[in-house]
Write a structure and sequence with these properties.
The chain has 402 residues and is of the alpha/beta class. Helices cover 36% and strands 14% of the residues. Strands 1-7-6-5-4-2-3 form a 7-stranded mixed β-sheet, with helices on both faces. Strands 8-9-12-11-10 form a 5-stranded mixed β-sheet.
Length: 402
Amino acid sequence: MGDYEDHGFATRVIHEGQGHNPHGALATPIYMTSTFCFDSVEDGMKKFSKEKPGFVYGRSGNPTTAALEAKCAAIEGGEAAMAASSGMGAISSVFMSLLKAGDHIIAGDTLYGGSDFVAHHLPDYGIQVSRVDTCDSTKVKAAMKPNTKLIYVESMLNPTLKINDIEALAKIAHGQGAMLVVDNTFTPPPMCFPIQLGADISLHSTTKYLNGHGDIIGGIVIAPAEKMVDIRGIGLTKICGCPASPMNSWLVLRGMKTLDLRVRKHCENAMAVAKWLEAQESVASVFYPGLPSHPQHELSKRQFADGLFGGMVSFEMKKPNGMSRFEATERVMNSLKLFSVAVSLGDPDSLAEFPAGMTHLVVPQEEREAVGITDGLIRLSCGLEEAKDLCNDLRQAFSGIN
């Protein structure tokens, strides 16, 4: 925890990690340097050996990035944090530093597309991988092995918006001495706090909600200080070599000043859009954990704070007369005006993505549909516009297939 642990989240996210600078600047300075000088050889030796705190080279640390790391660790209730140049850099640094040949991991059967390296490439290094429906704790228990080292899940599945029970998964993992690693990108604070729910490691693509403005690529890992020694020293610094740039760290710091306000507005808009979609004849199903119709609505109410259910909404189109479901979905997507067709999320601008025709196009149809990614599925990232305008944009897009 940080210096403001007794304050509310909105206060903490602004003030944590600010630190002190000799010139009295309110905003954290950007330290654009690749190397750092020492007062003497002895000073350098102590910093290299970790006997004395300080920075030695930009790949292993930077004051601007350190401020971001302190802020993220504090608001998630973790001991230490490490910023990477991308969300994939954060994920890879965790896996490549904590796993070795002969280890076994359990990963969700529905993950962000970039995470497919877990199933397709980790086995090349002698790491065993079991892909299961982690929303079903009985399947996770059945998949556990004596050499299971970690369970890797997303707090909210992309793009089906199913929910993983973090407390239940933590108990399963810890019962066998394994770790629970949670990608918390879809459900950032103040919505969800995986470490407080029992997870060992929480990570984000800071590209999304933490930065919130669609202008950087980055990632963050929050972990116990003991684990962070290898995640940073081996994973980030040596194997992956993917530190966050000072400029990007500064932009995320700036974005996080408004994180509380933004996340609440994203969630408010998503709820309004989800309720509107549920009343439309063109829509077969709406997937949003804030709706009572969501099969995990009760879990969502327990796991997510302050009545917040996220800024993401997915829905499935009905098959209209005279065209395939794929064609109808494509037509709706192409008719959107306020929603931009894009694959990211967490921006002020609302975004729409067609998984079957975009991010999961190369996945065989049978595999896609087995996890609920059908030709009629559309994923929305609800931005900060007026909710009524977002609903009106969807209405006019639906008119092209009615």
